[in-house]
Write a structure and sequence with these properties.
The complex is a heterodimer of chains A (about 375) and B (about 200).
Chain A: E1 2-9, E2 17-19, E3 25-29, H1 36-48, E4 67-75, E5 79-86, E6 89-94, E7 97-98, H2 103-108, E8 111-114, H3 126-140, H4 144-162, H5 171-211, E9 217-222, H6 232-245, H7 247-253, E10 264-269, E11 272-273, H8 280-302, E12 307-310, H9 319-331, E13 336-340, H10 345-348, E14 352-357, E15 360-363
Parallel strand pairs in A: 3-13, 3-14, 8-12, 12-13
Antiparallel strand pairs in A: 1-2, 1-4, 4-5, 5-6, 6-7, 9-10, 10-11, 14-15
Helix pairs in contact in A: 3-5, 4-5, 5-6, 5-8, 5-9, 8-9
Chain B: H1 7-16, H2 24-55, E1 57-58, E2 65-66, H3 72-75, E3 80-87, H4 90-99, E4 104-108, H5 126-134, E5 140-143, H6 149-162, E6 168-170, H7 187-195
Parallel strand pairs in B: 3-4, 3-5, 5-6
Antiparallel strand pairs in B: 1-2
Helix pairs in contact in B: 1-2
The chains are: A alpha/beta (about 375), B alpha/beta (about 200).
Chain lengths: ~375, ~200
């Protein structure tokens, strides 16, 4: 998959322009605040139909304007994707037809994107790490988005019942919702494990290649209700038991305390959790390796190369790790976008280079 | 546009806009076309609407549209009265009838349970279903609600509600899509397919 051209109008601080990236590495250079991350956001938005920075589409519209447009030509198939953001609404057309669901875009353009805040995921609360895993799960199999939204919906349904008066609730209805939620949770767990396994198989090699040595990376799933090594068919029953045991506590709190919505993904380096132990540079290189692993796993599953986007790829890395990242990028068979505030000579030789200045991207002559 | 139209025309446009797939433009086109047909054309439509309102009522048994107490499907003696297919709405009945494979009777719930949207079991035709089962002669209830959060909850609720009556409660299968090979299936589809396996 690759973006042949991208037309932008009123998207953040970017000037109206048609951006024609190359099929391989695209290096976007520029000082801070010139629009590099805005471009990254636009590319990521085309695939996910959501921004990694904001849930309010109005923030993506240039100030003083009513609407923003993105229009991209995407291969294979020369598909035309058009996005209009206006009045808090998003209108998306593919080849002139309105899309049915946001995941229609994932089928046409998959993007593995390292956004500026991603390395902090390793340090923050569990929700960021769950989201990292769930996004990859949906990217590699867009239908898993339905599974995830069904689970989230059922959780809200159960929580709505728990907010009612504990003495007056419909016992049979709570049981029905709990059973539906447990079934959906077990399926979500199976999908998460599948996604996690696929990353865990790839990550150590990519990380060793980038970091220059084996960092002993380990990823694991952490759950308070689902014990390690239990079979998946037991998950549904275990969760139902947990719901039953915690029912009074859940009623007191007004929400469901057990389930995949409270799980975590543990990422360790050299036997220590990254949280509280890994350096800034280690976290950065780990997340870069994660994203490259996502892209390679997607490729091996679907036979298509997703677009790889790495924002501020070289910041916080020492020279040897920068060189490691460059080697990985040069090996990648698909299209990639790398932003950096400093020119890296290792990439320059193989890349299409663009300069971002005051919201305008201009190609550097070869 | 609506500023220059007579108020009766505007209110008809507003009524038509409540229909699915009809926006202001389409509604205006419909109304202006009706005006071109003259009083006769408008009255024919008006009479048709009035008779729908006066004559068509929900079937006492299944909830489908009927022009008497019972609908044509519940009156059809060739259909098996011992199997009931429970569905959310009339559109689902139409889908089942299109394939022509099901020769039992239906039961339309009128929606699905959602605590979030304030739709409890009492707002649906679940008590009527229980009454039909209680009345006897029912061997199987197929719960064909949607495979989403509300549909699953509703199906499980119905199973629990019918438990005391010893009737067989089934749910349509989900599993391996047509033409796909096992190797490339996702874990969830494979899990569902294995759970829902049946005798060869």
């Amino acid at each position: 998959m690759l973006i042949k051209s991208l037309e932008l109008r009123n998207f953040r601080n970017l000037e109206a322009q048609i951006f024609n990236p190359g099929p391989g590495i695209n290096l976007i250079l520029g000082d801070n605040g010139q629009g590099k991350t805005n471009l990254v956001e636009a590319i990521s938005f085309l695939s996910w139909m959501r921004s990694f920075r904001t849930s309010r589409s109005v923030e993506m519209i240039k100030s003083g304007q009513d609407a923003a447009w993105l229009s991209a030509r995407i291969d294979p198939g020369g598909r035309q994707m058009e996005v209009q953001l206006a009045g808090g609404m998003r209108k998306v057309r593919i080849d002139g037809h309105p899309i049915k669901a946001a995941r229609d875009c994932l089928d046409i353009l998959a993007v593995a994107c390292l956004s500026p805040d991603d390395p902090a995921i390793l340090e923050g609360g569990p929700s960021g790490r769950r989201q990292l895993l769930d996004r990859f799960m949906v990217m590699r199999r867009p239908t898993m988005g339905i599974l995830l939204s069904t689970f989230e919906r059922l959780l809200k349904e159960r929580n709505a019942l728990l907010k009612a008066d504990a003495g007056a609730y419909d016992h049979k209805l709570l049981e029905a919702v709990s059973e539906a939620l447990a079934k959906s949770a077990a399926e979500l767990l199976a999908a998460r494990f599948e996604a996690l396994d696929s990353i865990a198989n790839r990550l150590p090699d990519i990380l060793a290649q980038m970091a220059g040595n084996d960092l002993g990376v380990e990823v694991g799933y952490q759950s308070k209700w689902f014990p390690k090594d239990a079979s998946l068919s037991r998950a549904q029953n275990l969760l139902l038991q947990a719901f039953h045991q915690r029912r009074d506590a859940d009623f007191a709190l007004g929400y469901t305390t057990a389930g995949p919505q409270a799980d975590d993904m543990e990422v360790g380096l050299l036997g220590l959790p990254t949280r509280g132990h890994a350096s800034r540079g280690q976290k950065k290189v780990l997340m870069l390796a994660w994203k490259v692993s996502e892209a390679l796993e997607y490729q091996s599953l679907t036979g298509q190369t997703p677009v790889l986007v790495l924002d501020d790829a070289f910041a916080d890395l020492d020279a040897s790790r920068q060189a490691g990242v460059v080697t990985c990028l040069c090996d990648y068979a698909g299209q990639s976008f790398i932003t950096s505030a400093v020119a890296d000579s290792g990439v320059l030789a193989n890349a299409s280079v663009f300069f971002a200045k005051q919201g305008l991207l201009s190609a550097m002559e070869a | 546009m609506s500023a220059v139209l007579p108020s009766a025309v505007v209110s008809l446009i507003n009524e038509l806009r409540k229909l699915p797939g009809v926006g202001e433009k389409t509604a205006t086109r419909y109304v202006l076309n009706l005006m071109l047909r003259g009083p006769e054309g408008v009255e024919a439509l008006s009479e048709a609407l009035a008779s729908v309102s006066a004559q068509v009522t929900p079937c006492r048994e299944c909830g489908f549209l009927a022009d008497g107490e019972l609908c044509v499907l519940c009156l059809d003696e060739l259909r098996d009265p011992s199997v009931i297919c429970v569905i959310e709405g009339i559109a689902d009945l139409v889908s089942f009838e299109k394939i022509g494979e099901f020769r039992g009777r239906y039961h339309i719930l009128g929606g699905a349970i959602s605590a979030l949207r304030g739709i409890g079991p009492d707002k649906l035709r679940i008590a009527e279903l229980v009454n039909r089962v209680k009345a006897g002669g029912i061997k199987e209830v197929i719960v064909a609600t949607s495979a989403d959060a509300e549909g699953e909850t509703t199906a499980l609720y119905i199973r629990k509600t019918l438990e005391p009556y010893g009737v067989r409660v089934t749910r349509p299968a989900t599993g391996i899509p047509m033409g796909s090979s096992i190797e490339f299936l996702d874990a969830v589809t494979l899990m569902r397919a294995l759970k829902g396996r049946k005798e060869l």
